Amino acid sequence: MDTGSHLLFGATIAGLSHLQPEIAADQTLATVVLIAALAGSHAPDLDAVFKLRSGDAYLRHHREWSHSLPAMLLWPAAIGSAAAWAFGVWEHLPTICLWTFAAVVLHILFDWTNAYGVKLLLPFKRKWYHLDALCLTDPMLMGMHGLIVVGWAVGLWSNPARLCLWAWAITAVYAGWRIVHHRLVLRRVRRRFRKALAIHVLPGLWWFRWSYVAETPEGFEMGGIAGKRMLPAMKLPAAQIHECVNATLRSSAVKTLRLFSKRTYFSWNREPDGGYLVTWTDLRFWREKDWPYRAEIRLDGQLNVVDQSIGWYKKMWEAPYV
Fold it and tell me: Which segments cross the bilayer (predicted)?
């Protein structure tokens, strides 16, 4: 999920902790749990530090070790210990670590529900896991948790435990429904493309809105789904190989994209200066006007890489919401 959603979830986890009498009765402890839960809800995304090296390095390592099985234990231990030391509440260390653990684990599980995915079974498996059920920002979840946090902040209720309990119960049911709904939509698309080699269905920003990409022996077919209607949008022929494409395989940007991509596609154009522009993308993240997630490699006439870039070429509020 996005940073704002993770922080809201961390705040309502802290609100939920008020169900524990010792937290509800101790303002200092409640404050420590709130700080620790907020830190834990954001901690896995501290892999953004790789941006200091390069955007390429960040994309290569994002949602890997910081979202792994060891991280589920290390983040709570580090954050809980730091919070207990800072406020002098060592006797409550297990309680603080427990609620921080909840925040960290929920962060990773929510990232699992996205299309981008997460390597949550490291070090045992390096596979990307993604349920393709929730957007990076889900309006319903963000609105519900946001209203509770704002009401708590302005003093509409002194003990948010009951409201937070309802919010998390609704969240669990809603996330489960979205996962089931995704599987039903995926089944519909598979019936439409019976000879498909692979099919992906990704969530739209609003309920009952999805996009799909189907790889067939002839190429790729993409479209949208609105309720019960399937809306074909475009077809792409199978990619045509060229020596300039092979020359880009050694570039770091292409290596990064291929590590992550599930439906890799490339195209190439001859440039006026005699060189080439080769574009690689993951077709799961398509849109009609361009490929928002792509690696662009420029080659000279002798097929030497002269420039390369990789990343998201879109605004945060633009589709696809992954």
Answer: 69-87, 93-112, 133-154, 166-186
- Cα–Cα distance between 322 and 316 in angstroms, integer? 9
Q: In the block, which residue shows the tokens 């309990």?
A: 165
Structural domain boundaries in the chain = 3-180, 189-237, 243-312
Separation of alpha carbons 142 and 151, rounded Å? 14
Q: Which residues pair with 198 in a beta bridge?
A: 215
Nearest to 298 by CA among 275, 267, 265: 275
- For residues 76-95, one letter each, b for 16 or more C-beta atoms within 10 angstroms of the residue's C-beta and e for the rest, the string is beebbbebbeebebeebeeb
Other residues' Cβ atoms within 10 Å of the Cβ of residue 12: 26
Model pLDDT for residues 207-255, shown as the tens digit of each residue: 899 999 999 999 999 999 999 899 999 999 988 889 999 999 999 999 9
Retrieve residue 120's tokens. Answer: 């949550």
Tokens of 34: 């709130």
Task: Determine contact, residues 316/300, Cβ cutoff 8 Å.
Answer: no
Name the β-bridge partners of 42: none
Q: How far apart are CA 68 and CA 64, in angstroms?
A: 6
Q: Encoding tokens for residue 322?
A: 């992954």
- Asked whether the beta carbons of 110 and 136 are under 8 A apart, the reply is no
Its pTM stands at 0.92
